[in-house]
Amino acid sequence: MSALIDLFSVAAIGAGLFFFFAGTVGLLRFPDSLTRLHALSKADNLGLGLVVLGLIPRAENPLAALKLLVVWALVLLSGASTAQLIGRALRRGRK
Amino acid sequence: MSVLPALDVGLALLVVGVAAWTIAARNLFASVVGYVAYGLLLALVWVRLYAPDVALTEAAVGGGVTGVLLVTAGKRLDALASAEVGVPPGRALKILAGALAALVAGALAWVVLTLPSPAPSLAPAAAEAAAGPGAGLGNPITAVLISYRSFDTMLEKVVLILAVLGVWSVGADAAWGAAPAPLRKVRPDGAMILLAQFLAPVGLLIGVHIFWVGADAPGGAFQGGALLAAMGMVAMMARLAEPPRIDSRKLRLALVAGPAVFLIVGVAGLALADNLFAYPQNFAKPLILFIEAFMVLSIAVALPMLVCGPPNGSPK
Asked: Where does the record place the Na+/H+ antiporter MnhB subunit-related protein domain (chain B) (predicted)?
């Protein structure tokens, strides 16, 4: 059973790392701010979500697991809002 | 080299690199962003040094509040239109400034390198105080802050109040008593309002939680207070709240509440526990939490008032 849980954690965290890697590559390689923003928000939302998913079975107690989920939710909220704010500021700057 | 030391070396190099980039950045905003990143990386360094209390403070103050303060200051300088277009300093001045900075850094390095071994330390005395008068608190950091070095902790908050007074006093005479200008002139974006509406209640809860667990686990008055202050700033940036008038009695009471309560309890220690800033043995923990609650209030009010700036507009 614990081997299965380990396997699940490794798979989820590995997938999360892949999204972080892809997001970082996008941040460095994409041509303009809007596309870079797009790459970054994927890394934050999906990458961190998968890492949290992989860590939940390893949490000491249900409260710690809940805290992990809250951390992810807060990053989702702030990531989505700041991406909106930066995107709108960019559009205003272009006009 | 195993994984963790390699990560530590990478982290240390990253901190130095970001610090150098922050100094070298030509643009004011870019260097502020660099400074915020530097503060967050430094928080990770503190975690690696097994100092989660310091890490929390660094993340909240070094990464968060100072960043907002610097961005706001930068915007005000931009409005004056003289921040970056002024005459660049001459070569002699640059060399002099560099030499002075090198001298200070060199003197500090010399002091650190020539420390006797073992270095003089207050740690045993602090540990004794944490085990004695601060007993009952599970978090030795809080015990040391409020019990062993209580006078310093109180004066730190007085410094915050003095800083707020300093900011207020650069306003025009005619504006004295009025409220500082709103943090945003135009109506903010829907995304900002949504963020503030969702984040502020959660942040308030986490701020109070960090203060409350500070007695027994990493956390404490400053960390919790800084988080509450940040939520206040978020609400003001979304124009869900406006800066209060600086002659408001409530505001002024909240500002001085922390140090005032600390001082009163400290002086009462003279009668109740035979010493200034001593606490009765069996009553230390509730007293310390009582003091800290007012400290949280003062910090949560003082930091946003620093960001809001001097009073602006007409009194009454």
From this structure: 194-302
